[in-house]
Fold this sequence. Notes:
The structure holds 2 protein chains of 2 kinds.
Chain A: H1 2-25, H2 33-38, H3 44-53, H4 60-72, H5 86-121, H6 126-140, H7 143-157, H8 170-198, H9 202-209, H10 214-252, H11 257-266, H12 270-298
Helix pairs in contact in A: 1-12, 5-6, 5-8, 5-10, 5-12, 6-8, 7-8, 7-10, 8-10, 9-10, 10-11, 10-12, 11-12
Chain B: H1 2-7, H2 9-26, H3 28-31, H4 63-98, H5 101-116, H6 119-130, H7 134-161, H8 164-171, H9 176-213, H10 224-231, H11 240-267
Amino acid sequence: MSGFIRRCVGVVLVLFGVMVMIFVVLRIIPGNPAAVLLNEHVNSATIERLTASMNLDKPLPEQFFMYLAGVLRGDLGQSYYMRQSVLSLVLEAFPYTLKLTILSAVFAWVLGIGIGVISALHHDRLPDYLFRGVSLLGVSVPVFMVALFLQYLFYFRFSLLPLVYDGSFESMILPAIALGWNSAGSVARLTRSSLMEQFGQPYLDTARAKGLTARQAVLTHGLKNSMVPVITMIAMQFSGMLSGAVITESVFGIAGLGKLALTAVQTRDMPLLQGTVLFSALVISLGNIIADLINVCLDPRLRV
Amino acid sequence: MIKTFIHNKVAVISVAIIAVIMLMAIFAPILTPYDAARQDLLVRLKAPGAEHLLGTDELGRDVFARMLYGARISLVIAIIPTVIAVLIGMILGIASAYYGKVADLLIMWFADVTLAFPGMLLAMAIMYTFGGSFVSVVICIVIMEWGSIARIVRSVTLSIIENEYIQAARSMGVRKIAIVIKHIIPNLVPTLIVLFTLNVPASILSESALSFLGIGIQPPQVSLGLMVNQSKTLLFQMPWLALAPSGMIMLLVLTFNYLGDALRDILDPKSKY
């Protein structure tokens, strides 16, 4: 349990670092965001008024502590461009990203673990070579290419699925596949190597001595033990998926976190960008903690 | 080691493909009579044919020429930030493993912080500040990659330090910096080569994704991701416009991945990262 608490403290420290870093990165270049926001045609008094109302006239450390205090109260500030609280914008966008990420994660795991297991069971024979090729292809294709290809195939050629997201489940299928494709490739590769490491372990002999066939023993006992690194990697991929979501959401027109961040960059909306990044980092860190907990359940040896 | 390399078919074929693409990118002006940026509105949107090998885009620019010049930028962007990230990762990884607790804690905390960012969002923050350009893309990729490299270098260094010859050198009074330069770095070289080869495709993918979103390389420069971005409105009518640059990205990434895997088997058969 103390390990878990230490892990949580670590996460808080990392999130603090994320805050400092994003705060600094967005303010390295001198220049007044208020002036950019209002464009040059207003008089200097208006700019000054907006600058003061956004606290941009205070020294940087003071601005940081005001921001920190706000974050601790659950206040991420006001969006310059959309004139709404950043938190409400982020919370509005998050469910779309979450739905997309979960669907594509399920796709990636089912396909990836399936291919990995088949590859391992037939290692160094034809199905293995075939699937290894496919999974290396999976990790090598850019997300946007998969997305455009799927649109071309399933919308334009066969008109089976909608082109962009319209709120229905069908319209989420293509984005989920596009986003999950890369992860499926790496999950397959890791599952294969991790499962093959279990071959020849004494506990598999015990299982066979109890009457299981070789394949049964591997699939019941071996698979469970081989999943520990796979789950760690899946949690790490969660971060990659949020990155990929930026592209997937922009191709399929989904109003998720990635789209929000892209809008923030395009409209030079600093608080919105800052809030979106911080929120994503929080989600990723929570995902990592959950993965740790799942691993402890799978492998009691990890309980310290 | 060179013998094992030559006997490894995958490694040799990958190196050959990469060399061919690099030569094509370097000698682009000789291979194509067209300029990547020159517009010729009389030959807009031509299908692939004898005069324009891969057709022309909506401004009448030759797609084959743009693909070669795009591959130039993509390759440069793949290699420069990866070298910088590997160097930073090496120095900080060794420092973390070899010099005391405070340095270790601080460096690993910093690595965790950069790893906690979703890469693309961090990239956006950098683009917000510096604007889309070659240099900002390089900065982005370095920040995205150094953390995981430092972590791996740290763990490999920790296992190198355990070796008896290092303890022997220490007990003879060899200075720490000399041990690092004479014993630790040479033993890290295989790991570093593999890390470099496996991070190059990641860099290519990051650059193309950023340029695809319109926040990476800016026109009139060409990059493969930017070409896909510019062709996506014509995706259904003229799929080859997107296919040529995407195919090039895929070929590069796939080949570097194969090479990385092969090098890992050759140089470092025990490792699993």
